[in-house]
Amino acid sequence: MSLLNIERVLIDGQWRVSSGTQIFQAVNPGTRLPLPREYPVSSWSEIEQAILAAARVSRELRDAPGELFAKFLDRFADRITERSGDFIATANQETGLPVEPRLKIAELPRTTNQLRQAAAAARDGGWSMPTIDTQNNIRSRLAAIGPVVVFGPNNFPFAFNSAAGGDFAAAVAAGNPVIAKGHSSHPNTTRLFAEEAFEAVREVGLPPAFVQLIYRTSHEDGCRLISHPAIGASGYTGARSTGLVLKEAADRVGKPIYLELSSINPVCVLPGVLAERSAELAGEFTTSCLMGTGQFCTNPGLVLLLAGPQTESFVNAVKAKFDAAPIGTMLSEGVLRNFDSGIQTLVAAGAEVLAGGQTGGGNGFSYRNTLLCVSGDKFLLSPHALQTEAFGNGSLFVIARDEAQMLAVLETLEGNLTGAIYSAQDGQDDALYSRIEPALRARVGRLINDKMPTGVAVSPAMNHGGPFPATGHPGFTAVGIPASIRRFAMLQCYDGVRPNRLPPELQNKNPRPGLWRSIDGQWSKADVG
Amino acid sequence: MSLLNIERVLIDGQWRVSSGTQIFQAVNPGTRLPLPREYPVSSWSEIEQAILAAARVSRELRDAPGELFAKFLDRFADRITERSGDFIATANQETGLPVEPRLKIAELPRTTNQLRQAAAAARDGGWSMPTIDTQNNIRSRLAAIGPVVVFGPNNFPFAFNSAAGGDFAAAVAAGNPVIAKGHSSHPNTTRLFAEEAFEAVREVGLPPAFVQLIYRTSHEDGCRLISHPAIGASGYTGARSTGLVLKEAADRVGKPIYLELSSINPVCVLPGVLAERSAELAGEFTTSCLMGTGQFCTNPGLVLLLAGPQTESFVNAVKAKFDAAPIGTMLSEGVLRNFDSGIQTLVAAGAEVLAGGQTGGGNGFSYRNTLLCVSGDKFLLSPHALQTEAFGNGSLFVIARDEAQMLAVLETLEGNLTGAIYSAQDGQDDALYSRIEPALRARVGRLINDKMPTGVAVSPAMNHGGPFPATGHPGFTAVGIPASIRRFAMLQCYDGVRPNRLPPELQNKNPRPGLWRSIDGQWSKADVG
Question: Does the distance separating the beta carbons of A473 and B254 come in below 8 Å?
Fold first, then answer.
């Protein structure tokens, strides 16, 4: 094999021939055929070079103003927009996700918007929460944690891309260099991002190794990478099994790792809302569940209903819609296989197949839109197995026999990103809402009323996080600025440090008119004293 | 053995006879004699009862106002003050720490002050950072995480006591019930705190199981306790070895655990300051290092100096002071043994004994004030061993041959709670300060100028935390309000939730005139709209 035709990795400011000895190709999920480009599995020696280069950059940038990172993020967003045609075509080829509306109208603008929001936050600096105690002359703020490794998922080639997505933007806004570990299913999309990021790095005068890219590592090297002494933190979005292996490695050496793992996003549909708008809700649910072929972390994978004739007709309506809806293409053969395995686990645990339940029906990698159903009685016999995430175009309806059982089912749930409750507008469900809400609230990061979980606004109040095993810590969010930025920071206190040695944000004079600081317990934009 | 004379555990609102089958006694470190009271090692069944009771209390209190926790904290502080004589006498007996100034003037008032600060924060609610996005109608805040287990250390019988100290106050202010695991060296002090806490619980009408106390568990049961599904989080202050075992158990199940482990708190003394005030500094250092027989997490355990005649005379001055200073009593035989073992490790790695270096010389458990010295050359040969924490009245001076070596030594340091730099007032050290500060800054939670690390103010800007292995995550602090409270919270987002179902802090009307909320990116005390 000649390594000369293999795509190059971006290490220490150069697009280099990899010293790895293995290669891989991406597959077009719509045709199931391999795509022509070949990508290297990086060797440990080049991974280590990337780590050392990133560590050097971290040191060089320690006093860099937020403005520099803001300029980079804005310029990067501009460049992505200028080259949007390439991005959309490439991602479509690698992921099978539709060009419109998904890639072009939704995900690419969301990605550049996220980068620009991160730029604004980096410029402003309020994310760092400067805190000043004038009486004791103690001052603190959050500051860059050191090189950040980002592992992006398969399902958002843009918005969560390791070289352009939410974790990337947050890590950069905090002032950290990033080592992007591309997802193997869309390496060319990731390469394009790294190209544009690298050009933006040069344009704004950041050190060339500020953004680096490797495509793949062995599992062992992935663990060595995130637990290396020179690494500050990592972000990982993806499958639970791999995430937990990385978490163990990072935890052992006390390196923060922010995980976004599995979630089945329970949706409770209370009886009154079915009386009010059953048909509409069947449509809303079907759209949410099948959108993007169901490949969302916030896909509504479990719907909890109360037994009764209205529920029966709702279930039938959804079944009809699932049967009639077009069948999407899945991201990869692995996703298809895992989805099938998840469905089989649910069926083996007692779920009944109402629609779908087998592969095929669409272009490329596809699986029929799948609706499963199980009684509350059966669910409570195997609550663990029946919470298996089937990542794809399917969902499990759980029919509780009464309100007490609905609550009992909720009380068995693991941590999730979201939990939704639909209730009647006329107040008839309010008592039941109050009864079940505490159990759901404690188990989810985001509690939703009267809508499906699939929309995740990039809002300062968003929580795209939740109790384990949805994530590794229930206090952090992967989406939303400035909160997501704070993950990639350490708390730095200055105790009695002389005024001229303080970072500008902690000096008496507020360096920027818009910067909020907590001064003696009160938020203020004023100077001290 | 009759269990009837054994001290009772506080479980589920009752002082109960333990079902454990092993007992232990505390030892008066000043006399080395066992104290008469006997305490149980709890059985798993009673630990589990405590967990379930705490989980029930968490559910009952989910909508409780911060005012309720504030009342409890204030009332508890009052009761401690009213019974201060008992506390001081008991802690003195169990720890050997002097009544004045330590226990009476410093630590007890600090403890009640901390409880009152936590009360004010609970009342105000600003710690929860209510965040409102009016355009998307998404709102979030930090909220109680669930039952908190607190493991207190040996060295602060009051201020870090598992039933009254910083972690306890922070967990309660966030609205969580606490299971206190007392430290085995001062069980009676902890029992007194639990008694007063329990009375305060009753006075303010909290559920009786809000505060529970167990004295000791097996290591295995300790791990089961903190990783139980019903537990929200844990706080541990103490030895690194035990802390890491607990961390591993908690990490495996994704339960936050906040650790405060070892720290050697490097102090860099730049040449100019020795020219300016060597004698004064020798006194300052000696006081800081020997205070409390050196048993502080922020004890200056490593002093970095540049070789030269001024350093030689400074070292000699400190040696003379160490030889002349009274020798304190250590907290326990275990502390004494570990200190000796730490000193032996340092000596084996090449450190030379300038003063002390052997047991005895004081009352009870004691060890001579110990000053060690090593060259930068030798330090760099065994940087890991020469960072061994010797927890007690000793310190290691590292003499770098030049500025480059001083920097090289700093670059080998592990994470620490604090790092201090003393430099000349006349500016002659400023270039060296700038050269070494980045290396130190990245490795410590609190950077200090011109003073010793042993004072830890309870300030909103304090960071009593730092990179691993000083703690488990560099973004959190164990001291300082409101930041320490946020550790015991989860991020709860409300997306499209109907107005009457929102917690008061997230409703349009600001429920308290003093409550800061972030509304559309601006901190405000106003109502929405």
Answer: yes
The residue among A461, A294, A302, A380 whose CA lies nearest residue B135 is A461
Per-domain residue ranges of chain B: 44-260, 266-449
Specify whether B196 is catalytic.
Answer: no
Report the residue of A244, A459, A505 to disrupt the B interface, i.e. the one with the largest count of B CBs within 10 Å: A459
Q: Which residue has the tokens 């200090």?
A: B448
What CATH architecture applies to the domain A10-21+46-261+478-484? 3-Layer(aba) Sandwich (3.40)
Amino acid in position B92: N
User: Which homologous superfamily does the CATH classification assign to the domain defined by B44-260?
Assistant: Aldehyde Dehydrogenase; Chain A, domain 1 (3.40.605.10)
Pairing status of strand A178-181 against strand A211-214: parallel
Written in H, E and C, the secondary structure of A209-266 is HHEEEECCCCHHHHHHHHCCCCCCEEEEECCHHHHHHHHHHHHHCCCCEEEECCCCCE
B147 touches chain A (CB under 8 A): no
Residue B484: closest CA among chain A residues belongs to which residue? A491
How far is the C-alpha of A144 from the C-alpha of A484, rounded, in Å?
A: 13
Domain over B266-449 is classified CATH 3.40.50.720: no
Q: A268 pairs with which residues across the strands?
A: A304, A421
CB contacts, 8 Å: A142 with chain B: 475
Contact A491 B468 (CB under 8 A): no
Nearest to A459 among B136, B476, B523 (CB): B136
Altogether, the residues listed in chain A come to a count of 529
Task: Answer whether A437 touches B (CB < 8 Å).
Answer: yes
- Among A518, A487, A513, A481, which Cα is nearest to A116's? A481
Residue B185, CB half-sphere, CA atoms under 13 Å: how many? Answer: 25
Q: What is the pLDDT of residues B204-246, one digit of tens each?
A: 999 999 999 999 999 999 999 999 999 999 999 999 999 999 9
Q: Would you tell me how many other CB atoms lie within 10 Å of the CB of residue B311?
A: 19
Helix (H, G, I), strand (E, B) or coil at B238: coil
B493 is catalytic: no
pTM of the model: 0.97
In chain B, the residue whose alpha carbon lies closest to the alpha carbon of A127 is B521
Q: What is the pLDDT of residues B240-288, one digit of tens each?
A: 999 999 999 999 999 999 999 989 999 999 999 999 999 999 999 999 9
